[in-house]
Amino acid sequence: MKVQIEEARELLEEKLTAKGLSAEDAGIVADEFMDGELRGRSDSCHGLIAFPIEIKGIAPKGAIEIEREGPAYALVNGNGNAGQLVGKFAMELAAKKAKESGVAMVGSYNHPPYLMPGYQARHAVKQGMIGIVTTVANAATAPFGGIDPVYGTNPIAIGIPSKQEPIIVDMATTVRAKGVTRYAKRYGEEIPEGCAIDKSGNPTRDPDEVHSMVAFGGYKGYGLGLAIEALVGPLVKAKVGTEKTGRGFLFQVIDPEAFAGRDEFEEKVSRLVEEVKASRKAEGVEEIFVPGEKSARKKRENLKNGFIEVDDALWEELSSL
Question: Class for domain 64-174+215-278, per CATH?
């Protein structure tokens, strides 16, 4: 069914305020779900489809606290607040410190997850800075050569500004995000080939048989995912490995002005993007995209139309929450 964008946003905000969030906080949380939906990320549960589950862990808590800080760093205790609220707080703090110090890192822990680290990285990009966001998620991934889930899908996002469309890398370190299993179960579909294994270590496309997610690129994705786990978790006081029951996040912001200067930096990035898009295309390829470009185009298209397509049963579920 077709749903007006503002109608969908208002519904989410209504459900969030009913949970006790202020109108302002409800708007912040709802915006990330809407952003995922507008960008066409529903198939990996980065949109409205995630809302009925994620809202269960959202409630007003104590104030977000800065436990430790210096000119270019800080450690934030989320105190159980929604990941979207903690993420916004931490990224804004990192951006403020980076403007003063050139670079900054802010870690956060003790809060539920948000959906897309790329959403947070864009906050830095909008201010002409580089945003790098890494996340330790609950154990869901088998190590290379293993069977049982030991570490998280551990997504990473890198946002790089340019004179044109920014580069936004936003991905799990597994073949697909864990949310694909939720999407497949809901719609009675199989998960993509090669992204999960069952309890015997055999590849499976049945979402009900998924035991572990599989790292992308074999040992390379495994190495990246494990490095994020070992770096971020212990650094921000989050649990790691199979003991993990929560998340940990690390927000890094770099101001190009402190190095080559913003103009020169963005000009070179733009030139690189132009070369990539103008390079020879493989047979059957109509256009080469840079990371984040397709989803940005999809969002602009949806905003222009003013509506989104939502599954009837999902809309009914959202309305009845």
Answer: alpha beta
Which regions of the chain carry the CATH code 1.10.1530.10? Answer: 1-60+292-321
C-beta contacts of 206-209 below 8 A and 24+ residues apart: 207/180, 207/181, 207/182
Q: pLDDT (tens digit, 0 to 9) for every residue of the chain, 321 residues total? A: 999 999 999 999 999 999 999 999 999 999 999 999 999 988 778 899 999 999 998 988 889 999 999 999 999 999 999 999 999 999 999 999 999 999 999 999 999 888 899 999 999 999 999 999 999 989 999 999 999 999 999 999 999 999 988 999 999 999 999 999 988 998 999 999 999 999 999 999 999 999 999 999 999 999 999 999 999 999 999 989 998 666 899 999 999 999 999 999 999 999 999 999 999 999 999 999 999 999 999 999 999 999 999 999 999 999 999
Numbered ranges of CATH 3.30.1370.60 in the chain: 64-174+215-278
Contact by Cβ (8 Å): 114, 83: yes
For residue 168, give both structure tokens.
Answer: 């936004």
In whole angstroms, what is the distance from residue 161 CA to residue 221 CA? 25
